[in-house]
Specification:
Number of strands: 9
CATH class of the largest domain: Alpha Beta
Radius of gyration: 19 Å
Largest sheet: 6 strands, mixed
Helix content: 40-55%
Number of domains: 2
Shape: globular
Strand order of the largest sheet: 1-2-3-4-6-9
CATH topology of the largest domain: 2-enoyl-CoA Hydratase, Chain A, domain 1
Order of helices and strands: EEHEHHEEHEEHHHEHEHHHH
C-alpha cells in the first residue's frame, strides 16, 4: 500500500493521509516526494474546494525519518535530492489554491509540525503533541518555517519551542493559537470545519488566501496587483451574478468557480 493516500469526498473535498503508522508517519525521501506530488496535482483540480491533511494510526507526522536520512547523509547528491523533496513538498502545501486543514492526532513534530504550519488551519484532538526539535539535534530550523511558527503560536511560545525542543500538548497549542480548534475526533471535526468553505465562492477564497498568506509573510505589496486582477475577474464572474441572485431570492448560492 502507498505511503500517501488520497481519498475524495465528492468533487469538492480531498483527504490526504500520511500512511506510515509503523514509523509514526515519519516521512522518508520517497514519501516526501509523493506527498508533494499529490499537492501539485490537486492544485490543477478546478472542482476542488478544500484539502484535509492527516495521518494514519493515531499519529499526524513524527517528522523526517531519521533512519532514512542517515542512509544518504554521507552521499552529497543523494542528500541534496532528499532535501529537495522536503522543500518541494513544503512549497506544494503552501501553494495550494484552496484551504488546507491539518487534522492532528498524536505526534506533530519536526517536519510534521512544519507541514501543519503550512496548512491554513489545524484541528487537533487531545492526543496531539507539537514540537520542533532542532535545538536537541544541533540543527537550525529554517527561517521561513520560523516565521510561520511565530505567526501561529506567538513569539514567546515560538521561542520556547525553538530554544528547548519541548513538546506542547493540545491545550497549550490551542491557548497560544497554534491549534485552531480542539475536537474529540480531529478528522471528523476537520471535515465539518471545511463545509462552509465548500459552499463559498472559490474566486473569493483564492484571493483571500493569497492576500492573507502574503500579509503573514510581510510581502503584501508583491501581490497587490494580482489580488486586484482577481477582484476584477470576480466582478465579471458568473459566481458574482449567482451570489446577487441568491441574496435577492433568499436562498443559498451555488458557486461554480467561474
Amino acid at each position: 500500500m502507498s505511503d500517501i493516500l488520497l481519498q475524495r469526498h465528492g468533487d469538492a473535498l480531498a483527504v490526504v493521509t500520511i500512511n506510515r503508522p509503523s514509523r509514526r508517519n515519519a516521512l522518508n525521501g520517497e514519501a516526501w516526494r509523493d506527498l508533494g506530488q499529490i499537492f501539485v496535482r490537486l492544485r490543477e483540480d478546478t472542482a476542488l474546494r478544500a484539502i484535509i491533511l492527516t495521518g494514519a494510526g493515531g499519529a499526524f507526522c513524527a517528522g523526517d525519518d531519521i533512519m532514512a536520512f542517515a542512509a544518504v547523509r554521507d552521499d552529497a547528491p543523494a542528500r541534496q535530492a532528499y532535501w529537495d523533496h522536503i522543500m518541494t513538498c513544503y512549497t506544494a502545501v503552501s501553494a495550494s489554491r484552496v484551504p488546507v486543514i491539518a487534522a492532528v492526532s498524536g505526534p506533530c513534530v519536526g517536519g510534521g509540525c512544519t507541514l501543519a504550519l503550512r496548512c491554513d488551519f489545524r484541528i487537533a484532538d487531545a492526543t496531539a503533541r507539537f514540537g520542533v526539535p532542532p535545538a536537541k539535534l544541533g540543527l537550525v530550523y529554517p527561517a521561513d518555517s520560523t516565521q510561520l511558527l511565530v505567526s501561529a503560536a506567538g513569539i514567546s511560545m515560538a521561542k520556547r519551542m525553538l530554544y528547548t525542543g519541548v513538546l506542547i500538548d493540545a491545550g497549550e497549542a490551542k491557548s497560544c493559537g497554534l491549534v485552531t480548534e480542539l475536537a474529540e475526533n480531529a478528522l471528523a471535526a476537520a471535515t465539518a470545519f471545511a463545509q462552509p468553505m465548500l459552499a463559498s465562492a472559490p474566486l473569493s477564497i483564492a484571493a483571500a488566501k493569497l492576500a492573507c498568506d502574503a500579509a503573514m509573510a510581510g510581502r503584501i505589496a508583491e501581490v497587490t496587483d494580482e489580488v486586484m486582477e482577481m477582484s476584477r475577474r470576480a466582478d465579471a464572474s458568473e459566481d458574482y451574478r449567482e451570489g446577487t441572485r441568491a441574496f435577492a431570492e433568499k436562498r443559498a448560492p451555488c458557486f461554480l468557480g467561474r
